[in-house]
Amino acid sequence: MALVERKYVDGRDGRLSEATAGDFIALLKPRVMSLVVFTAFVGMVLAPATPNPLLAVIAILAIAVGAGAAGALNMWYDADIDAKMTRTVGRPLPRGRVAPGEALGFGLFLSAFSVMTLGLMANWLAASLLAFTIFFYVVIYTMWLKRSTPQNIVIGGAAGALPPVIGWAAITGTVTLESLVLFLIIFLWTPPHFWALALFKTGDYARAGIPMMPNVAGEEHTKRQIFAYAVLVAVSGLLPSVLGFASIAYGAIAAVLGCGFVWYSWRVLKMDQGDRTMGPAKALFAYSLVYLFAIFAVLLLDGMISRIGA
Fold first, then answer.
1. CA distance between the termini of the chain
2. Which residue, among 167, 194, 189, has the nearest Cα to 179 in the 3D structure?
3. CA distances from 243 to 33, 143, 158, 165 (A)
4. Are 36 and 181 in a shared domain?
5. 259-272: average pLDDT
6. Cα angle vertex 99, ends 95, 105, to 5°?
7. What is the Cα–Cα distance from 222 to 133, expressed in whole angstroms?
8. pTM (2 decimals)?
9. What are the start-end ranges of the E strands in the chain?
10. Residue 75: pLDDT band by 50, 70, 90 thresholds?
11. Would you say residue 100 lies in a domain?
12. Host domain of residue 276
């Protein structure tokens, strides 16, 4: 695709921005967006109501756009630290592919569009939750917590845990205990997932000046925190079955997956401090992604089977 050139002034200097459609798609953080869409969809399926198919599609698209908007605003604000980290240096802003003003405008427009669409087509409770999620991720997490406290990912994880609640609310117009359990699973999963990453990306975070747990409290403390959260994740994964909105079969699979999470975290806990390969931490990070997808995939399948049998 031909490059699209625009003239802009970002407050510091004037230069040409050469951005393709792919650059703007990258601003949306597609991998993160896909997880948001998936968990929101699971929330919709598990909700005790039969949605209009068109409404469900529009709601999912609005949630996806809202997640992408938050990602774009995050990249706009974090362009300075993204340029210092190997994991993020290839993003559109550090590479100079997209201008800061373009990213800001893009994110703000998509934020307003997604919230208004969800409010008009579904309900304003879901739209309010989406607006709060964007605000929390961009302002509370990105602008405040991320650069100020090692608890950044603990508190900030609330933003990533809200999509299934939004999906549930889009269909029912309510927030219930069941939807909050889905929130809890993701909320508790977030710290060990990101702290595992932080263990083998400590240098990146140090260069960027981000106070991640390993940089501030040390490796041993971080490993203990990871293990403690892993136990909580395993327990929270059983709650849908315990509370009766998922089957015993789901509970059995969740127990196996949870034991796997605890086992991988135990390996991290016992990891030799001199092991610079960080093999157990990398393995936990990979497994944590599998765990969350698998838990919600089994919940989805369980909910669909329940609907068919109803």
1. 50
2. 167
3. 29, 37, 22, 17
4. no
5. 96
6. 135
7. 27
8. 0.92
9. 4-9, 14-19
10. very high
11. yes
12. 176-305
Contact predicate 118/55, CB 8 Å: no
User: Can you give the length of the chain in residues?
Assistant: 310
Helices and strands (DSSP H and E) totals, the chain: 15, 2
3-class SS of residue 7: strand
Q: In this structure, what CATH number is given to the domain that contains residue 202?
A: 1.20.120
φ and ψ at residue 209, rounded to 5 degrees: 75, 25
Q: Both tokens of residue 110?
A: 């998509």
**Looking at residues 70-95, what average pLDDT do you find?**
95
The encoded tokens of residue 297 equal: 């995939």
**Pair 170, 56 in one domain:** yes
Amino acid (1-letter code) at residue 302: D
Nearest in space to 115 (alpha carbons), one of 158, 77, 76, 69 = 69
Q: Is the pLDDT of residue 291 over 90?
A: yes
- Residue 168 near residue 182, CB atoms below 8 Å: yes
How far apart CA 239 and CA 141 sit, in angstroms, is 27
